[in-house]
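User: For a reading group we're discussing how well predicted structures match intuition. Take TonB-dependent receptor. Before you show the prediction, I'll give you the sequence so everyone sees exactly what went in.
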Amino acid sequence: MKHNILKFPCMIAVFYFGMNVSAQETPRDSSSREQKIEEVVVIGYGTAKKRDLTGSIVKVSGAEINDKPASNPVNSLQGKVAGLSIVNSGQPGSQADVRIRGTVTINQTQPVYIVDGVFANNIDFLNPADIESMEILKDPSSLAIFGNRGANGAIIVTTKRGRSGRTSVTLTSSLGVKSLDNRPDLADGDLFRTLFNEDLAYQGLQPYDFSLFNGNTNWIDEIAQKGGIINQHNVTISNGSEKNRVSFSFGYHDEDGSIKYEKYQRLTFKFNDDLKISDRLRAGIGLNGSYSKLPQLRSFGSALNATPVVTPRNMTAGEFYGYYNSLPQQIGGPQIGNPLAAIEATQYTQLNRDIQFNPNAYLEFDFLRNFTFRSNYFVNYRSNYGRGYSPIFDIYIPETNTIAPYSGQLLTSVNQFERRNLVFQQSQLLTYKNEFGKHDVTALLGFETTDDNLTGMNGSVRSSLSGPLGQIPNDPRFWYLGTDYGDTNTRSVNSEQSRLRTASYLGRVLYNYDSKYLLNASLRYDGSSALAAGKKFDWFWSVGAGWEVSREEFLRENPVINYLKLKGSYGDLGNQYVPYNYFAYPPYVPGATGVFGDSVYPALSFAWRPGLGIGWEHVKSYEFGFESQLFDRKLSFDATYYNKETYDLLNLVEGNPNFFLNSGAIQAKGFEFTAGWKDNVTDDFTWYANANLTTTKTKVLETRGEGYIGYYGPAIYQVGTPIGAFYGYDVEGIFQSYAEILGSPASTIGDVAPGDFKYRDVNGDGKITPDDRTVIGDPTPDFTYGFTLGADYKGFFVDADFYGVYGNEVFRTWGNGSSFAPFNYRAERADRWTGPGTSNWEPRSYTASGYNRENSSYMIEDGSFFRIRNVQLGYNFNKNLIAGLSLEALKVYVNVQNLKTWDNVNGFTPEAGGSATSFGINGAGYPNPRIATFGINATF
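Assistant: Thanks. Here is the predicted 3D structure of TonB-dependent receptor, as structure tokens, for the group to look at:
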């Protein structure tokens, strides 16, 4: 496919060389560029000056995300950091697909999160207003200290704590309204009737009589929530003295989804108390947590597939007759229910909750002048539970003028589940700091353990037509497995339990000589209970070096180059993540049965073959680049080349039974560019421009053996191809006549007629066979970019974020005629082939043959897009104006998120996350809505 989308925005992005807003201060940040170099950043198990580091760590101020309308703080990082890819879902409470420097492992793509020292797999329990800063760690020099957690990168979150001084109260409040930007283009009623009858004609069948079905319904409009509301309200109280600093915050988030009756609500709280017991002894406790009412998640899938010829409700004289209409029984009715009926009749019948509770404590003391010992203790408790109800209701069948149960369901049922995860983590850290002569040394030794316990239960029960109590009522009081209305013969319960323990020894040295020559080295010895005996422990390490060239005499007084640092690092990181925790001890599951005489004996078999030799994945990674500031520090420009190669991949091989092995290798490499310009034109006027650009290329270096090919839906896993590459036939056009078919390679995969696809004979053997399938797309973009423009004048400010990707493909799985069921068509099918010369891309309307339904480049769409990600305008009141209101600060603003997206994908969004081997798939998706917000921040 040619990528012809939005060349002008791409040229803008290249012009800015991909500058990084998150690494730069906003115009409302009074610190200078020199202070940015000297600023302290959070690294693994400590802090350090950015100037002393040899790796790639990007610090994002909490101010960048505090007032954005997002339930998960990581969503607001999209487009702000080079090397950080974020695919957001607009569904409330959802987790973004986050990747740092590409995809380099099969079982896990997400980075590790560290929240105030606690490891986490997600940060959806955090209130964005509570965040002080977020550090994104990308290179081996920064990540090796995390050993078994660092393979996919790390995001360190530091929350706000109390400060010395007067008591302060901060209130933030915002109200937003959602609307849809893009939506799929579907056939209307008239086009559907035309295409469907053409399909029947090609099959030699009579036209369908649509006299009972003359509707023209857009099912997306029917089930979409119009004007969904998002509310965010937070209060923070802090007080501090030289001896004691306390902070407390409380937040409330309320959000409507883009589909009717989706509702997400969350309460968050945070408490910190830092106590200075003496000049050498400090202690502290903290607590953060959340309580969430999770939405009853819906999908637009049925709205895309349902035929548009049916009116949703059975109406008489303009009034709802009491029943919803069924779809035509011969046209999708048995496969697809009325989408509106499914939404409205089951509204609020699934009650899911999520609770997180994360206490922590530390004790820290100094001794022997240069030593500090810190003892940390963390608990991460999460409980996800819920119960739901499946009602029965009737639907009108127009063909027979009768009433029938929806989807043939005759019995009500109840489901119930609970999943608890309790993690205990402790770390003991000894730090040595000293400066002597021109030498500066910071050394760290540590010991850490984690104990991760998971328990879960789920079950269901149905009612009985012969039961004395009848159906289970549509009342939450009875939605339990033990309900008296349930038929005990249908009650089923399943449970799960697992435990994962790790133990680690770690060390790090940060050294610089004369503030010019830098050396960072880390070493970690990790052990995991998940791996096989004899393979549980392994070493991980890194070394990085830097040279601050601008401190040399030949550059010290240079009028152009104010700061220049060359840097590079190499390391070996680890990964242990797999679906199971006990490779060597698989559980038993029901197997085949044997019959002896009149008795049946059940058999048991292993769930998987014992993984007696399973060990660690290793990620060998290196980078080199430079950081610079030019022209009186107005311009900053950084560039980095990175290369990551993962070996001994932990592979699940499907068989009888399944088994695991270490095999395969994946590579991800590319460049990162960041730059920024800030200019104080006058004392009252400041403007800035920042941006970033990242290139990424992935490649499968090894698989499970020579010639092995793994298939993951439309994606392939094969040596020499990008990870997740799409695989299928290459469409060269449409056969216009039988003469053209006779003059082309013969097909062995199905009968061909004029109006069908012409597939390319890839191997040149004169016929079309499965061997002609080839790579038809790469879901990883050639480059991603983001840039920000902003200005500040006498308290008035404006900033705008832009984001885009270029050079990737997405695979469309809907609207292709890829099902025997008569689903609705994409609007593009109006340009179908109807005779010689009418089309050379859209095939004829004919679904009886599977030939046109093969995975092919017809399903490939250009995934490049450009988005106005965020625009904010506001005013920071002058302190003199608000002094009489007892206010320290007051800010009002309007914010528009996802203002506009330009793309070439027929769907709600051009973005699609997924697994390591199956992502970038367009199932039409869930909207990333436009959100217009008004907000106010006040500090007393």
